[in-house]
Amino acid sequence: MKKITEVNEWKITENQLYPEDNRLSESLFSIGNGKMGMRGNFEETYSGDTHLGTYIGGIYYPDKTRVGWWKNGYPEYYAKVLNAPEVTGIRVYLDEEELDLHTWKVTAFRRELHMKHGYLYREFTAVSPSGKHIEGKVTRFFSIVDSSIIGVKYEVKSTDFEGRISFEPYLDGDVRNEDANYDEDFWMPVHHEYAFEHAALTMRTRKTEFDVTAAMQTKLIGEGIRQGKVVNEEEHVGHHVSAAIKPGNKITFYKFVSVVTSRDYNRNSLLEEAKSRVAKAADEGFTGLFKQQMEAWEKRWQHADVSIGGDVSAQQGIRYNIFQLYNTYTGEDPLLNIGPKGFTGEKYGGSTYWDTEAYCLPFYLSTADESIARNLLIYRYRHLDKANENAAKLGLKGALYPMVTMDGEESHNEWEITFEEIHRNGAIAHAIWNYINYTGDASYLADYGFEVLAEISKFWASRVNFNPRKGKYMILGVTGPNEYENNVNNNWHTNRMASWTLEYTLTAALYLERNHQKRFIELKNELGLTDDDFEHWKDIITHMYYPSDKQLGVYLQQDGFLDKDLMHVSDLDPKELPLNQNWSWDRILRSCFIKQADVLQSMYFLNHRFTLDEKKRNFDFYEPMTVHESSLSPCVHAVLAAEIGYEEKAYEMYLRTARLDLDNYNNDTEDGLHITSMAGSWLAIVHGFAGMRVKKGELHLKPFIPKAWDNYAFKLNFRGHLVNVHVDHQHVTITQEKGERFTLSLDGQLIDIPEAGKIEV
User: According to the model, what pLDDT value does residue 654 have?
Assistant: First the structure.
């Protein structure tokens, strides 16, 4: 692991330029506002290794699938999150020499991501090839007050140089994706215009025909200002402006940008909308906008923060993850979802995996208004027709939700993932249960939820096959959450979640029949459900096959797991890790090593269904063989380790999930941050260390505190209550900040929490 940043509770800082790790830095210093974002690229030209990336929520391209052997049923396209037009670029010149921190001598460099106030700051001193010395200070933010606005402040101070400093701000639509299957240009020009200090550019995506319009205004503060050339081309607009500078003098340049899309506005009004918004931003000025940004982020942190005393490294990790989650998704746009890389990179292409339901939904349930979590569920409801089509491609009934999607259609092109990793259906069903269990909003079943559950249940009922020799239903040819095993039979997690989904759907049907009879009859007719279907589902539940070993007392990950050469990760040479970067795929598939929680994933999802002893035996068996090379793995292990009393292991797994990107544990952060797994650090603390569960509508807490910490605290939004939980080595203090009197369970003891009151135990 290579660490390039300092430890600080509210900032991410690097104190030197790392050219060999520039892509890693660009990932770590990414910033966004829930609608768009970009990697931590420089505004000025950088000729070294770089991955320039700006991304806009919901703007994608269906890149034609490229495989060596086409298999019937493959998705025709793979959705790509598009690298959008570059809008923050500013070329900087000292006389005729262009500033480039790769070719200039950099004598000092500092870059800071300010999480508390939501901005990126950079300062440097550099010497040009001809010996000119300058100091630069750059501040950039993506507004969370107006999510179309980006502000840049670029200051340059001369140390010994007298002459002219020039700025060339631009908007550039000639961009490419690094991961394009055919190296295509995904954009085509629509409109361009330029007047001095004002410019606009509209680009349109090929095939999907999304229009993106960017408008900019600029302002230079200095002496002897001169206007230079204007560039007004189809895919590139910009201008040249300069000022006189002397040793000790400072020149300040401001760039304001507005980015709007045809997802949100009529394409005929995009240009005026962008120009109007950027004009308003420029009138407000950088100082005013920056103040609004800081105040808005402070307000957001009042509800979302998790504070940790006595362990700055752990504190930085959780805040960084929460910061990046809210950079990616705020819930304001119900048509957006949470991509595994967010706005920080192109890997994984699509915008939605099962990660959202499994990991992110619980975070938003507790830290934001419940409508946001509801929107995440409705996102899947809107795509139910596409999920039906996906199942039909396999000759099956019901709905198979896509592994990767932008618009509901499957857009992943690895067979063993696309059509074998079907356990994601269970995660989507579980998210409905999780939402209703947490919020008490059972009306969701009548409005949306039952349709999804029923169609998923139809899929499971048609996907199982009955083995008459054993009198059991089985699910063959699947890939479980552990992607280091492909095309296995009876993955325990898949079988368990399939059976549980059928059971929960029957429970939901009974609830609707008793409480929404008219609606239930309508739904049965619309979905073509009969009592025979329900009886068949019950039979599957009763006779589902679950591989296990009585001697070991564990559930088997799949039928043949014990045929493998069982060994522990600790027996490996550390140089062989990560396995996915050092072993052949064949060797990985034949090994016992586990990429991420599999059997243990079910024990996390269906926590209330397993005894503590069952959890302990399976944890003891599987965790030593788990390499955690999926970012989704450590948090599940942290929660279960905390529950069974393995406090040191829980803390180890917490640090791994909280600092996964900051410390580059898996040597892959240069591709972008692991956004969806970032919710795992919150889960590790709240579900793990604090033992938060909701049972029969009642909030339960069973806290412990890691030895390395002095205290920790977090807030929960729960059924109209805003509760602050503070834990130290002597006491647990619970304060209700909003809501009426209610009761919760603390270490098994019922505690009465007064309105706007504090209880210390």
Answer: 97
User: Which helix (H) or strand (E) segment is 226 a member of?
Assistant: strand 223-232
Token representation of residue 363: 């975070």
- Whether the CB-CB separation of 244 and 223 falls below 8 Å is answered with yes
What's the rounded Cα separation, in Å, for the pair 490 and 480?
A: 9
**pTM (predicted TM-score):** 0.96
- CA distance linking residue 247 with residue 249, whole number of Å: 6
Separation of alpha carbons 559 and 546, rounded Å:
9
| H or E stretch covering 101 | none
Question: What proportion of the chain, given as a percentage, has pLDDT over 90?
Answer: 90
Residue 418 has pLDDT above 90, yes or no: no
Class of domain 693-761: mainly beta
At which residue do the structure tokens 């092109």 appear? 413
pLDDT of 182 over the 80 cut: no
CB 99 within 8 A of CB 44: yes
Residues linked to residue 113 through DSSP beta bridges, in sequence order: 12, 120
Lowest mean pLDDT segment, chosen from 72-76, 136-140, 491-495:
72-76
Residue 741 is predicted with a pLDDT of: 94
**For the domain bounded by 309-348+553-689, which CATH number is listed?**
1.50.10.10
Compute CA 653 distance to the chain's CA centroid, rounded to the nearest angstrom.
Answer: 19
Is 70 exceeded by the pLDDT of residue 241? Answer: yes
pLDDT in tens, 68-114: 777 777 777 878 889 999 999 999 999 999 999 999 999 999 999 99
- Residue 556 corresponds to which tokens in the numbers above? 């088997």
Q: Which residue, among 645, 650, 460, has the nearest Cα to 536 in the 3D structure?
A: 460
Yes or no: say if 549 and 556 are a contact pair by the CB < 8 Å rule: yes
Question: Which of the following CATH numbers is that of domain 32-304: 2.70.98.40, 2.40.50.100, 1.10.3720.10, 2.40.128.110?
Answer: 2.70.98.40
**Selection from 421, 554, 547 nearest residue 484 by Cα:** 421
Same fold, 309-348+553-689 and 369-546: yes
SS3 assignment, position 594: strand
Q: Cα torsion for 489, 494, 496, 497, to the nearest 10°?
A: -160
Q: Which of the listed CATH numbers 3.40.30.10, 1.10.3470.10, 1.50.10.10, 3.40.50.150 matches domain 369-546?
A: 1.50.10.10
Look at residue 270 and tell me whether its pLDDT is greater than 70: yes
> Residue length, the chain?
761
Instruction: For residue 713, give the 3-state DSSP assignment.
Output: strand
How is residue 328 written in tokens?
């990616």
Q: Give the 3-state secondary structure of residue 632.
A: coil
CB 338 within 8 A of CB 410: no
Closest CA to 628 of 663, 657, 608, 650: 657
> Contact 63/77 with Cβ under 8 angstroms?
yes
Query: For residue 670, what is the enclosing H or E element?
Result: none
Q: 3-class secondary structure for 289-315? A: HHHHHHHHHHHHHHHHCEEEECCHHHH
- Separation of first and last alpha carbons in the chain: 41
Q: Which residues contact 99 (CB under 8 A, 6 or more apart)?
A: 44, 45, 91, 92, 93, 126, 128, 134, 136
Q: According to the model, what pLDDT value does residue 1 have?
A: 58
Q: Would you say residue 434 has pLDDT above 90?
A: yes
Question: What percentage of the chain has pLDDT greater than the value 70?
Answer: 99
Extents of the domains making up the chain: 32-304, 309-348+553-689, 369-546, 693-761
Rounded to the nearest angstrom, the gap between the alpha carbon of residue 89 and the centroid of all alpha carbons in its chain is 26
Q: How many CA atoms lie within 13 A of 214 on its CB side?
A: 29
Q: Are the CB atoms for 199 and 215 separated by under 8 Å?
A: yes
Q: Give which of 102, 97, 62, 105 is closest to 82, Cα–Cα.
A: 62
Q: Which residues are catalytic?
A: 483
Where b means 16+ CB within 10 Å and e means fewer, 740-755 reads eebebebeeeebebee
Written as six digits, the tokens of 558 are: 């799949």
- Alpha carbon 713 to its chain centroid, in Å, reads 23
